[in-house]
Each structure stands twice: as C-alpha cells, then as structure tokens.
Protein: Anhydro-N-acetylmuramic acid kinase
Amino acid sequence: MIILASLCAGKPAALEPKAWIPGGIFPDPAMWTLKSWQKKIVFLLGMVHDFWSRTPDNLEGHAKQLHDARWKELEAELVRLQSQAPAVCSPISILPPDGEDNPFQSVRYLNGPVSAAWQMLHTAFLILTVCTPCSLASRLSVLSSPDVIRRAQMYARQIVANSLANRCTIAWANAVQLLTIAGQCLVVDSERNACVRILREIQQQTGWNTQASIDRLGAVWENSWRYEPWGSHSAVGQVDAGKLLYYVWLGEERSPS
Structure:
C-alpha cells in the first residue's frame, strides 16, 4: 500500500490520496460490502495521513479555520464509516484481558481482511487524535490533556490487541507500521511487552524484519520519562503519556532515535 512506506515517518506519501481514484472522491455505495468498506478505510487513512504530514507548524486566521474544519470533517467521516461496517465485519468473539501475557481485550474477527480493515480504521482515528487542532506552542499541552491521552491510548490498545487476537499473514501484512505507531503511545509495561512480542512473532512467522520497529519503540519509550522531585536528593520517574503522543505527532525523522 502506497501509504505504509511514509506512515511512521510522518512524511507525505509519494502520491496524494486524491490521485488514487478518478476525481479524487470516494462516493459511498448504495450498500456496503467488505471490499468497498475496506477500500474506503484505506482511502480515509490516506487522507488522514496526508492531513497530518502536510500540516504547517503554525496557522492563523482563515487558514486555521479551514484546517480546523477539515479535521472535523475527517473525524465525522471516520465515525460514519465505523457505524456503517457491514455485518460480516462484526466481531465473532470478545474476551476480557488475561494477565500479563494478554493485557488487552481480545476481539476476534471472521478473517484477516476484516481484522486488517479494523486495524487501519483505528490507526486513522489514532493519527487524527494526535493531530487535534492547536498551535505549535500548545501542541504538547493539548496532547497531555486527559481526554486526548484517553482516546489515543484506547485506539493504540485496539491496534495492538488486533494483531494479538487475529494471527494470520493477511492481517499481519499491513500491521508492522501500524503497530509501530500504536506502540509508541503505550504506557503500561505489560502492554509494551505484548507489542514487542507480536512484532517478534511477525518476524518469526513471515520473515519480515521488524527489528527496526522494535528499536524505534525502545528509543521513544526511553525518552518518555518525566522525573519529579522526591525528597531533597532524589527524583521519581514516571512515563509522560503526553510526550509519547508528541513524539508520534513529530514523526520518525524528528523525534528521538
């Protein structure tokens, strides 16, 4: 897929999404099928990625109004598409978390194409959340707000849990870049360990090299600590969830490595 090569870097794709289809518009069909729903998800993920990668550092006046309106439009399109999922895309089972080895709710789908579609849709939601409109100066503050952190971590968990629960090559074909983005948002050690474990399993089962993604996650996690004074001669470290989201927003080329 065109978008995957540039997804983690936060760089524009080689071909703009509007150039993927005639007229640059993806009209909704009279009735959604798995195939049409998948295609629309790929298109919207491309549009969200393009919005993220082409956003200027600072916007003012009318340009900012247009940018904010476009963000709301993309959000509405994602919400609408999520609600229009055909029946074949419904979960076939939902199981609660099961200890350290599986710290996520497990949602299983009928087959690889269905689980891959949901994973891409949740990634689009995650990226759009990280792109919540604000000024460059307030970006870290906005990404550190409880509501943004809650939503981003919800989508990140769904993305990683998807690969753990739906273990098939078709689903894993697009998963490495999505797991790399989602994994950066995780705070809990057991969730991070699960993300690394599934990346290693993907490499073992498919031969695709995931070590760069694992190294990337380790670098971001290492740089996400915040230290607060504790007594007169010591400090207590804790993970800064807002900083993690900020690194995602920066993209691979500008954030810690």
